[in-house]
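User: My collaborator and I are trying to settle a disagreement about how two of our proteins should look. Neither of us wants to argue from intuition anymore, so we agreed to look at predicted structures for both before our next call. Could you fold the first one, then the second, and keep them clearly separated?

Assistant: That sounds like a sensible way to settle it. I'll keep them separate. The first protein:
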Amino acid sequence: MKLTPRYNVAPGTWITAVRHPRDDAPLVMDEVWWGYRPHWAKEKAPEPINATVEKVATSNYFRGAFAHHRCLVPADGWYEWLPVGGRKQPHFLCREDREPIWLAGIWSQRPDGTPGCAILTEPARGVAAEIHSRMPLALDAESLEPWLDPHLTDRETIRHVVHHLPAERITHWPVSMRVNRPTQDDAELIEPVDP
């Protein structure tokens, strides 16, 4: 699969993920729809883009995917918006060393047969809490393999072997308001600006 840089990834689009398409299948890096609706859900069922760490293992809507269909979404960072003077200033959040971030996700086969995913979120930590109350669940390097292990299905075991990226490794800066338009997608979007 050829990866093309994207700088403004909107929900309801195809995104890259690493996953086991079946329990006995090798890992693949392919595209999944950023919107989670399991194949058994009704036509008007919600299609969330996120699932909270507090409920993902126990919610009827998510728990099957949490136990059997976890995935990783590679990213350089993510955007959040900080209210400033009656408007919302976008910020880019990333690792201080600018290394890739692996976001924890779950996926399910959608009613149309394609895979769809939701990214897990947790309460914001460190400097991320300056911008927003929640953040994606970014995993540390040692957690990637167990997160993807299809044979690891017990909630408590997963909780003990999977850890988030330390908060002190995350930084942020204000970026262009152009990021508010999904049609804008270029490297300048993640460059710092003077708000």
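The second protein, kept apart from the first:
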Amino acid sequence: MSPQTYLARFVGGPLDGRWETFSAPAGAPLQTVTHVYLHGGPKILHHYDLSYSDEQGWEYRLRAAQ
């Protein structure tokens, strides 16, 4: 079986509106993506969790701050 290409949109945070391309099943997407922002001060981490809905397709949604 050949892999199929999928698109996942980033929702929220500094990556909002960007798209990630992945292939499955051979290259299954990461369930969580961590974005590290370095700006000359302390580093800032943002975590995005993968989800799927029939209306929006694949999305990496910004995890709420704890």
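Some points you might bring to the call about the second protein. Residues 4-62 form one domain. The mean pLDDT is 84.
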